[in-house]
Amino acid sequence: MSEAALSLANDPGREVASSAIGTVPVTLTINGQEHRLAVEPWVTLLDLLRERLHLTGSKKGCDHGQCGACTVLIDGRRMNSCLKLAVTLDGSEITTIEGLGQPGNLHPLQAAFLEHDAFQCGYCTPGQICSGVGLIAEGHARTRDDVREQMSGNLCRCGAYTNIADAILEVLGTEDRE
Amino acid sequence: MPDTRHEPIRVGIGTPLNRVDGEAKVTGQAQYAAEYPAAGLLHGVIVSGRIARGRITGIDETAARSVPGVVEVLTHRNRPHTPWLDRNYKDELSIPGDPFRPLESEEIQFSGQPVALVLAETFEAARFAASLIDVSYEAAPHNIDFEASLAEKFLPSKKRNSYHEPKNHGDADAAFDKAELRHEARYHLAVEHHNPMEMHATTVDWHGDGTLTVYDKNQGSQGVQSYLCNIFGFSKKELRVVNAYVGGAFGSGLRPQYQVYLAVMAAKHMQRSVRVVMTRQQMFTHAHRPEAVYTVKLGAEPTGKLTAILGDATTSTSRFEDNMEDVVIWGMINYDSPNMKGEYSIAPRDTYTSADMRAPGAATGMTIFEIAMDELAYKAGVDPLEFRMINYSDIDAMYRTPFTSKALREAYREGAAAFGWDRRSPEPRSMREGRELIGWGMATGLWNAEFVETSARARLTADGRLEVASATSDIGTGTYTVLALVAADTLGLRPERITVRIGDSDLPHSQVEGGSRAAASAGAAVQLACQAVGAKLLAAAAKVEGKPLGDARSLEDVTLTDGYMILRSDPSKAVSFADAMAASGLDVIEEEATAKPGLGDRISQMTKSRNVHSAVFAEVRVDEDLGQVRVTRIVNAVAAGRIINPKTARSQILGGVVMGMGMALHEETMGDPILGRWMNHNLAEYHIPVNADVHDIEVIFVDEPDPEVTPLGAKGVGEIGIISTAAAIANAIFHATGQRHRNLPITIDRLIAT
Amino acid sequence: MIRFDYARPTEVSDAVREGAAEQATYLAGGTNLVDLLKENVARPTRVVDIGRLPLAEIGETESGGLRLGALVTNSETAYDSRVQERYPLLSSAILAGATAQLRNAATNGGNINQRTRCYYFYDVATPCNKRNPGQGCGAIGGVNRIHAILGTSPHCIATHPSDMAVALAALQAEVRVTGSDGERVIPFADYHRLPGEEPWRDNTLKPGELVTAIDLPAERFTQNFTYLKLRDRLSYAFALVSVAVAMRIEDGRIAEARIALGGVAHKPWRRLEAEEVLVGRAPDRAAFDAATEVLLDGARGHGANDFKIPMARKAIPRALEQAAAGTPQSQTDKRLA
Question: Which of C229, C234, C264 to mutate to test the interface with B (most CBs of B within 10 A)?
Fold first, then answer.
């Protein structure tokens, strides 16, 4: 693999981050910790997290933005990490499930998922929880219908949807039970 | 001694306990097969074939091999030697035929067949190189069209072990011909793919000392271990399989999938650790629920009493293995009729072999039968629930044997009450709100209660901690938590003092996890092992100075509570586990036990039927013009014996219901007959229900004491939730719209009234 | 995914220069392009990351409309108070599409440039004229349940998958683009194209041209509008048929009407004749049916997608009713209004 090859654009006053085929330097703050990395442009954030940083809490369920298992928070907003090339995120703050809470120190939504049995196999769960945290921060959900619609980007093949909605509604502080 | 010691610990069988593996799962700490690090790991990416049948005529690997980081490309031409005989490739659930052997030869048997494995230092290099492999083929004629394949349908002479021959009674044809009420229709179920959220994946940790650990997604570590050892020549001491966390499977992990074969082959070849993860597209190249056609003929008296049940079903399989399911027996078991006849066949086509998917056979056969029953109920002018009561059978109507228990009447009653079934207006299209037609439908579910030989180990240490272990699996089913509850119940320990180890071939023997049998089987084994530990404790207590427990010899004589043995006859007398162990100089008490059907059980298994039942009620709202369906309410009342953990058991039913909604409305893998290939092989176009599709689901467990069915009285709840949910929805759609749909799924195009 | 080199310009002029290279492609939110890269459908040699260009603002236009920067995300657009108040149809259509995660990443420019969801286009093991010109069309005679019924060609029956674009068509937005020849404005109706003889061309962008903004005209349609979407499940599915309606009713008569269909053609489908049929008439079923017939004139199924014709025939008047009644379809309450 060739060395990082940063070049300048023709206009010398203006820097254009660029590389021939090779690596690009990227700084990411992941769960509060700064990582300075050299990454090939075709590496997704999801693969970077899982294969290089061993943060395997973010799951690969389809690798095409069709399931939501890879959902993380990028600068506070929930997104599919499988569709983000890591190089495009230089300077971003990323929160994964590992950054939300740990055993013994759970985020309220993690605790609510546990209490409501809002998962079975657990594979979609980190994505569901990151998505739920994003949903709450967005502030567009008030009713159960809102939660259902706004959580529809996270597939759960075990079918825990009603419990997932219950968990999120509890943390939202909404008592909409229909 | 704490004052609370006499308070019986309430945590045990029947306690709704949060998942003991839950904290690991909600924090992302639970490790799945592709998530184990290994030194010097190589990443393997599978290249999938393009044609459905024929042979490979050439593979150009030049460009792939020139990609920096690529270390090897395995194809049929250079793969390591593997055994010649089919029997080496049999797995725990093998079926008659020739098991698929990845990279065996140039022969192509199905579209998407793996044709190469690229191994590289990074995933990205392997993925890129895989895209550069240029394979040329010589295509042979193929067929993946199910209707066309029916011309070749047959009943294999060598049948799958699990297959149950329908038992015929009377003269069903004659009874049907002279029946005053008759219903005859042909029903169809589309191909479904399991699509667990975790894709099939394997990480082989090559330790370099001749041993390897295979972290693999499967439903039975020991079955996969045997399979791999037979093929690759390892001993079970050398090759260990771990499936501690399984991201769903629903049957796709019952048999070893090809990525584990390729990963171990590659690891052995390279003498390095290897990870192979399927893509979502590749998840559509193996196990799937067979496509099915099922013609049901029902004859009845004018009152609605059945006089004839006839069923003739065909399901799809591959050309290389004869997969069979029990499709036609369920209605025959469930309903009283003097005349019944079942016929079944399979039809081969050029796909991978179909496989068990959640409630195999029953999800197809009982669901379809229950749509047919609904049709005849309307013909008879009888309420669908009443119609089922008219034909209720207290015994297994096909085997003519009594049930160990059958609380289906109670399920009907409690389900109907919760749903408000008595407020139903009988006529189709008679309930509406605004532009939505409202329909209420119901159906009956039926599944087996199985109990299989399983071993477990219990290990109590002097610090009062207990570890229980068995090679069974938790694929989301709640096995960890169920076993913790059984252990807590048996030894009176708090669950937080108990560690459950499962999902590892090194642990005591267990069969593959499937068919709703793990809780009853592994639970029984854990109970036995814990009882053996308890007996040892009691014996140890006799050495405690003053013998506070007197002559107590049997666990019946004491109550085990929170680390104490308390004399039943005099609760002021107690010995702690720690004191007993100290008095006997024991640091550890470790016992292993095997739960297996005994002689009495075996006789009982021959003379009694063991089944789980359910009554499913559904409300749908269908837009009158546009055909959009909303499933607004489901009540599923389940009779499944003793419920070990109501919390996780409820979730199992919820999940089955949601998958049943998918079967009813969404799930269909569509094949291109010209290309011989599944086309909607992704989660954007293979639709499973999303959160917005799922409204109220109420789960009821009816009381059904059954000490006979299994040692714990549990019947298992993994499958029953899906069975007939789609029928209840289809029947509700008929009630709403007056349109009868006999093809599942009932997608919106089928509902657009023309 | 093939290998490519990468550039991250911060000025539009630099981006356009980078994008002029042979086989270069622009990358914004990535929600479609990264998917296509993984499928080996997109095979650029150079990826120009435009995420840092100063195109992420929503502002006023000189003519009283709104200018949506190409890099404003779909979420920011849908929830922007100006968009919600002045162009509720657009907000509704965006929220009918994809998921919160995807809308948070996807940009306005990327949305209208997303490519078809045709199964064959995505599967490089199958023939597709859009992906590989001259290879043939697998969907014709194949699995074509989701395919087009209007404006197809013998070479391609793919549909455009965007919901947002359907609303933009009804609103008569304009697309501002910049290329090596400078800036130009493309009326939305002329932005996407029908497959014809060149199905690989989705739109009328010239090579290297970059979408910088989408302009919404002053006309707002805040009273009588709807976005009605029919799909295979109640969320997170592409439209089988969708209908965007924007209408102005004066004195009980339709003064102006716009209807655009999604899921039925290679571009958002409009027929000005159908809209003219409505003008001056009372908003009643007869008028709606008349417009529907004109809109669907020439519709043709390909087997598995035949149902789209009756589906559209029912959905169009329903959407017109929703708009006329001032009861737009909710994207949360899944009851069809």
Answer: C234
